[in-house]
Write a structure and sequence with these properties.
five-stranded mixed sheet, signal, elongated, 2 helices
């Protein structure tokens, strides 16, 4: 299943983060179905949400917030993934749905970066009925080729197992994806938020 921010909700202004949440339904990739029954349908995927204040990351060396002191600027550009049946219980009923997530990023290495490697922290959280059930933090390490300061990349695939039953359904889940920000970075995003413009679907 695939979701893509640029195609569905394209941000036209910079620097911006989404105000509120961007809701991103997952769409099925043909290769995503790895079921015992080749004729079975792939399970539905939860909606993915990008918290507006966590869609961009800007890091500086020291207290000055100017281009000369910028070390890294990163924007979340794309989230791709797929869903498949997980473990099964009695009578072959599914006990979990496995959602595989990969996060796309537009990464800029600023003038204050030392070396050609930057580290980008991000998180994936599982929410059920409005309550965060699990949140994991990851660090993506990006190495730039010589004389390159900007690159498009994506993270490794992260599998997430979502328990389901006749009472706990996939419709009750959603997944939140964003950058893991420091308090200063969060304050910077909040102070620089502007209302983005979107192309129609």
């Amino acid at each position: 299943m695939t979701i893509a921010i640029p195609n569905g909700l394209r941000r036209l202004c910079r620097p911006v983060a989404f105000r509120g949440l961007a809701f991103l339904p997952l769409a099925l990739l043909p290769s995503a179905c790895q079921l015992d029954d080749p004729n079975a349908f792939a399970p539905a995927c939860p909606v993915v949400e990008v918290p507006g204040e966590a869609a961009d990351l800007v890091a500086y060396a020291g207290d000055a917030h100017d281009i000369a002191h910028m070390t890294t600027r990163v924007s979340l550009t794309r989230v791709t993934g797929n869903c498949q049946q997980g473990s099964r219980g009695g009578k072959g009923r599914p006990r979990s749905i496995t959602t595989n997530i990969s996060v796309g990023m537009d990464v800029t290495r600023g003038p204050a970066t030392r070396g050609r490697t930057v580290e980008v922290p991000y998180f994936i959280a599982v929410v059920y009925d409005g309550e965060i059930k699990s949140k994991k933090q990851f660090v993506e390490t990006i190495e730039f080729p010589p004389n390159v300061t900007r690159t498009l990349t994506h993270t490794r695939i992260v599998p997430i197992d979502l328990p389901v039953s006749h009472r706990v359904t996939i419709d009750g889940y959603h997944i939140e994806v964003g950058f893991q920000l420091t308090p200063d970075q969060l304050a910077y995003n909040r102070s620089h938020l502007i209302t983005p413009s979107f192309h129609p679907l």
